[in-house]
Amino acid sequence: MNNIIYVIGGSDSRNRLRSFDSxxxxxxxxxxLPPLDVGRSDGAALAYRNRIWIFGGFDxxxxxxxxxxxxxxxxxxxDMPSMIEPRSGHCAVLFNGKMFIxxxxxxxxxxxxxxxxxxxxxxxxxxxSAPRSNFDAVVVDECIYVIGGHVSEESIGHCxxxxxxxxTPIHYLTKPIAAGAAMFxxxxxxxxxxxxxxx
Length: 199
Fold this sequence. Notes:
Blueprint (H helix, E strand, L loop, with lengths): L4 E4 L11 E5 L4 E4 L11 E5 L2 E8 L4 E9 L4 E5 L10 E5 L2 E5 L2 E2 L2 E2 L3 E5 L2 E5 L10 E5 L2 E9 L2 E9 L4 E4 L18 H10 L1
Keywords: Kelch repeat, Repeat
InterPro entries: Kelch-typ_b-propeller, Kelch_1
């Protein structure tokens, strides 16, 4: 957000961290910002409506439903409405103008539940067909895609997509993967013209 990289919370192998830092590529410098109220790892974060939001996570003793939002203009964190369910190892995406929180680990197991934030209220969305935590999620062509993950102490290759109404299974990964990383890079409009000139 605002051409700044933000790093929120995490773990130093001994403690769950409250730390919050930013990196400005233009100056090549890190800056320490006001800490979270609660240290946490395995949370999920989004930039939404000029704030940095962090959802859930694990504080070392319990899974959290707590949500905090940082306002760069006031340089402060504010408690926001808590999620319906506590989650860690979940994913957060912006979809159809709303923040969707998907899956994760809760109550000792992975979950398939999904919720979204709508005008200050958390609402339930249709659940995934399979529970998963420590997975990947991306938005492509007006659908949320969830990829792999972890369930029942095993990695899975199951993938599915959500079009705003229903979840539909898609082709499995070539092998089970959990705690990986996924991204979507949209082809810029000028690439086709460039390739045409080179052919």
